[in-house]
Amino acid sequence: MTSQNYELLLRRCKLLSAPDRTEIVDIAISAPCTANGTVSRTIAAIASHIDGTAAIELDVQNQLVSPPFVESHIHLDSALTAGEPRWNESGTLFEGIEIWHDRKQTLSLEDVKQRAIATLKQQAAQGVLFVRSHADVSEASLTALVALLEVREDVKDWLTLQVVAFPQDGIYGSPKNQDLMEEALKMGVDVIGGIPHYELTREDGVNSVHQIFKWAEQYDRLIDIHCDEIDDDQSRFLEVVAACAIRHGMGSRVTASHTTAFGSYNNAYAFKLLGFLQRTQLNFIANPLINITLQGRTDTYPKRRGVTRVKELWQQGINVSLGHDCIQDPWYSLGTGNMLDVASMAVHVCQMTGMAEIDACYNMVTWNGAKTLNLEEYGIAVGKPANLIVLDACDRYDAIRRRATVRHVISQGKLLTKTSPAEVTWQE
Ligand SMILES: [Zn+2]
Question: What pTM was computed for the model?
């Protein structure tokens, strides 16, 4: 029997082959083959020992091999602008929107593209290979959108980017905004966004959700709505999104982002709503780093955490993923793109410190994110595209606790980045 020649062989992997399964195996990645003009490398074999040789062979030494991280909610158009033209001194969402309004007057195609690609590189080096980014479509020039659609194309050989048409100033806040949303749809956005709690009236908010579902059917797109991102316990657009998802039968293609008001609802209402949500198959995204810093700003004490009910949604079997939302912008001046920071903050803020709960928070930045993005072929299995990461960790708990270094990132069968963990030398 002749031994096979592979592109890449990973020896002694502690493979997370499913959200509930770990095994010690070798993984082989095939040489590239071209089909329909695209070059692809797939997982050729997974076994306790694989005979063969490869152009690159890595001994993983029983460290954790995981599907790549999924960043399910970020704004790449505003990333890396913190302090421009001024710092958000109050730390509120609304001062952030004012600062962004001023900053976006000087937006250019090159400016957005350069910052977006720099951010994506930071993310990819830390194991993120699937990203959903919102693009502000409130400006007549649609500069942010054009730039992010170009970036989607520029990075497609090493990272999958979904772009959301996000009406930052509301769909009905200005007469031109509806046309801009339709223009964005025609230009090829993957997802339709919304911001019902920031429309001028409650009625406008409800109407905006109906309009978004209408567009989603007409243009066959996914939906991801910034929903109830406020501490107001009367902000109740989530029930409207849930009702539309049930009536249109589109639940798994719909995402409610933030839903921070859900953390402030009275329990009688919240538990009624949870029952409806179970019927919808909606996806949820919490952004714990920014939610804990932006929300609760008008409270004295007790001060609310301002994060949606992640643990309760998870306990009901509802899909929850986690995002950064912002990296160094007017709303959140911190962040590095490390999804383990996000998962760690969720463990703390959502009080998910049980072992199964910590594993669940890891799954929220991997498999659950893939489900939110409606990704096909996510995960590590024979025949799937070869996307995987090697962590300097022995399990999910270890990875989150130490925010473990991602040592190798393999994207579409190619070794994309290598990072060495920091090393301490004691001096006598
Ligand atoms: Zn957002």
Answer: 0.97
